[in-house]
């Protein structure tokens, strides 16, 4: 195993719930308990983030949320395919951006 390898023995579902609990729900107010699956949760979160980025652009400002949009899109598409590991990996990148907010 190479240096820097991260092992995570949690299921994809557990990883996604952890992302929701730690930063996704506080940032977007999208609660997984009120949606039909992770693809729906991430679609709603992506819509809210995009709306905030658009609002900032309309005000002539840059939004740090802009950096998350591509990774949220990948996460949502992977969740729609049922690939929760790719979804969790994409959300890990988003979490890095969220920590800077």
Sequence-ordered SSE layout with sheet pairings:
Layout: H1 12-28, H2 38-58, H3 69-81, H4 84-99
Helix pairs in contact: 1-2, 1-4, 2-3, 3-4
Walkthrough of the structure:
- The chain is an all-alpha fold and 101 residues long.
- It is 66% helix and 0% strand.
- The protein is built from four helices and no strands.
- α1 runs parallel beside α4, α2 runs antiparallel to α3 (69-81) and α3 (69-81) runs antiparallel to α4 (84-99).
- It is globular and about 45 Å long.
- The N and C termini lie far apart (33 Å).
Condensed summary:
The chain has 101 residues and is an all-alpha fold.
C-alpha geometry: globular
Runs in which pLDDT lies below 50 for 5 or more consecutive residues are: none
Structural category is: mainly alpha
Beta-strand residue fraction: under 5%
Q: Helical content, roughly?
A: 55-70%
Indicate the mean pLDDT: 89
Spatial separation of the terminal alpha carbons: 33 Å
Helix segment tally: 4
What is the ordering of alpha helices and beta strands? HHHH
Say how many strands there are: 0
Give the C-alpha Rg. Answer: 14 Å
Largest sheet: none
């Amino acid at each position: 195993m190479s240096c820097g390898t991260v092992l995570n023995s949690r299921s994809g579902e557990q990883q996604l719930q952890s992302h929701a609990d730690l930063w996704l729900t506080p940032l977007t107010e999208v609660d997984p308990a009120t949606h039909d699956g992770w693809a729906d949760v991430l679609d709603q979160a992506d819509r809210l983030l995009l709306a905030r980025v658009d609002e900032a652009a309309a005000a002539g400002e840059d939004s740090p949320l802009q950096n998350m949009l591509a990774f949220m899109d990948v996460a949502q598409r992977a969740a729609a395919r049922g690939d929760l590991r790719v979804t969790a990996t994409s959300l890990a990148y988003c979490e890095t951006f969220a920590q800077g907010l």
